[in-house]
Amino acid sequence: MSREYDLISPLIALYDEMDAAYRVAAGRGSFSCQGCDGIRCCTVDLRIYTCAEMVYLRRGFNELPVAIRDEMGERARQVVAAKDRAPMGSEYRNAVCPVNFEGRCALYQYRPMICRLAGIPYIVTRPDMATIQGTGCKRFQHEVAPVHSDLVLDRSSFYLRMSEIQMDAMKSLRRKTPVQTIAEIIHYGAYGL
């Protein structure tokens, strides 16, 4: 349990900072995901690179009521099977994240960084000083960008801190974390495969 706490404690602190920065940016643009079904953002191919995020997501899964866990586990199994059959096929590409229940994330408190920061345009300055930029979701582009074209969330410090958390995890575990999608994390974590 101590090792899990060591992985998750700095992650939760980082998530709190991300959430605060996101709230400020969203508030500035009067942007909300309220009423969106999440299908565009809740894609099945979002990859999670960090052990701490995987452990935290699994913790949230394990705290769900059994009926929801069973349904989510089955959804994850189906998504993983579709990916195994044809990763570029429409069955997999058109699937929705297995934790999306009626347009809402059933693991919202435990959602990974990629989900926490979705929707708002961003900038990331890499250690080599190269800059990566991304547009917001379609809703942001239609509703907010025309009025707040300069609204951008700088993710640089979040990515840097997340990489530090991952490096600490790799040292602690003495292995590299396999990259997995949310469906794979739920499926393999839920069934011990």
Tell me what you see in this structure:
The protein is mainly alpha-helical and 193 residues long. Helices cover 52% and strands 9% of the residues. The protein has one domain (2-191). The strands form 3 sheets. Strands 5-4-6 form a 3-stranded mixed beta sheet. It has a two-stranded antiparallel sheet with strand order 1-7.
- What's the overall geometry? globular
Query: What is the string of helix and strand elements?
Result: HEHHHEEHEEHEHEH
Which class do the helix and strand fractions yield? mainly alpha
Proportion of beta-strand residues: 5-15%
Uncertain regions spanning at least 5 consecutive residues: none
Kindly give the count of domains.
1
The number of helical runs is 8
Cα Rg: 17 Å
Q: Averaging pLDDT over every residue, what do you get?
A: 90
For the secondary structure, the number of strands is: 7
What is the distance, rounded to the nearest whole angstrom, between the alpha carbons of the first and last residues?
Answer: 21 Å
For the biggest sheet, the summary is: 3 strands, mixed
Helix content: 40-55%
Task: Give, in spatial order, the strands making up the sheet with the most strands.
Answer: 5-4-6
